[in-house]
Amino acid sequence: MIAKQINKYINDHYCFFGDEIIPPDCPLLTGNYIDSLSVLEIVCHLEHTFNISINDEEITLENFEKINSIISLVESKLNKEHHVYSSDENTSNETTNEYNQLSKACA
Amino acid sequence: MKILPTKQLTNITNFLRHALNNRIKQGFVIGLSGGIDSALTLRLCIEAVGTERIKAIMLPEKESSPKNMKLACDLTEQYGIDHETLNITNTLKALKVYSMKEKIVRKYYSDFIPDMHNYKMAINIPQKNNKNFRIYHIFVSNKKGEPLFQKRMEYHDVLKFISISNMKLRLRMLHLYQVAEEKNYLVAGTTNKTENDLGNFCPHGDGAADIHVIKHLYKTQVYELSRYFKLPEGILNNEPGPDIFSFYVTDSEFFYANSIKQTDQLLHAYQNNIPESEVSEQINIPVNEVETNFWCFDLLVKHTEHMRTSVPSL
Fold first, then answer.
1. For chain A, what are the domain ranges?
2. Facing A44 at nearest CB: one of B126, B134, B154
3. How far apart are alpha carbons A24 and B50 in whole angstroms?
4. Which of A38, A85, B38, B175 could make a disulfide contact with A34, Cβ separation 3.0–4.6 Å?
5. How many CB pairs under 8 A join A and B?
6. Residue B227 phi, psi (nearest 5)
7. In Å, how far is A23's CA from the nearest CA of chain B?
8. What CA–CA distances, in Å, run from B129 to A43, A86, B294?
9. Under CATH, what is the fold of the domain A2-106?
10. For residue range B31-84, what is the model confidence (pLDDT) as tens digits?
11. DSSP characters for B22-36?
């Protein structure tokens, strides 16, 4: 669920061309999908959507390099804050699967 | 990074004289801020064409530093050049620049009163040896400069704050060009290499000019040449900053997140492909800090490229 939401948000906001989908393991900055200021926009969205707090020290390349790294950050924060969410599967794999399905559909 | 001041003087003055001849113009207009860049630009233009063909314009507004204005005025008196001061506060009020900014400040600090408080926006880089993104904070102080409040700003507020602040710089550009056209002069640009290459200028604002006088010089080289010309101590010692907020913000706080000296050392090394390990030894900072700075330069150069190139067309 988390992976799906984040994946959708990033693709809706930063992927402008028709059938293109941002792969979850694609570097967002070097892939020219976002600039360094856009990271602040993503932070704001994550804080509001998942009711989490992301401090300045966590706004790093490591945490925002790819869709999957963002998902990992949110998951780890939700786990730490003892939030309950329903996901039986590894959400990063879930995102990769979703991407593969979407790619096939677009092909 | 050392320069030969006499060689610079010859090259720049020749360049400026040729520019006037080639474009059939009669002199230079310079916007004087009280900072070192515009002061050196003025001095170089005087060296090139003499005091008779120069017009300096001071364009203060209610949030400008009074100290900077005094430094600028004193310089025009010292050089005996034609000058004019035009306060742009009322125009900025009419453009709602202050009210729009105050609305954003109040979103974070609801008790903000312009007569009682000052504000600024500055970047926060929490860890110098980690690849942190540039995060903007808003700061509020009392009129004595004592800090009262600090908070991270949201993305859209950062963009709006920058766009509103840039209106000040673009209004100044309007006035400089009005005077330049009236007198058949060229607007002399004051942007230096450090600002230009990293994108620390406003397109069509302080970056707008007919000729760039010091754009080939890093900021530390601007200091070196200014010392050679014995510019006033007040200007040499003045902490550089954009002077766009009521709470004075330095260039290091607003943009570079480093001292000017270290920024230039790192930028020079970055642009000359000097290995990180070598840079680390040369300027005595850890290798991972050099890597982080180079990564930051990669982003800045890439994301401000459009500011340095001409408008695309087919």
1. 2-106
2. B154
3. 62
4. A38
5. 52
6. -65, -35
7. 21
8. 21, 37, 11
9. 1.10.1200
10. 999 999 999 999 999 999 999 999 999 999 999 999 999 999 999 999 999 999
11. HHT---EEEE--SSH
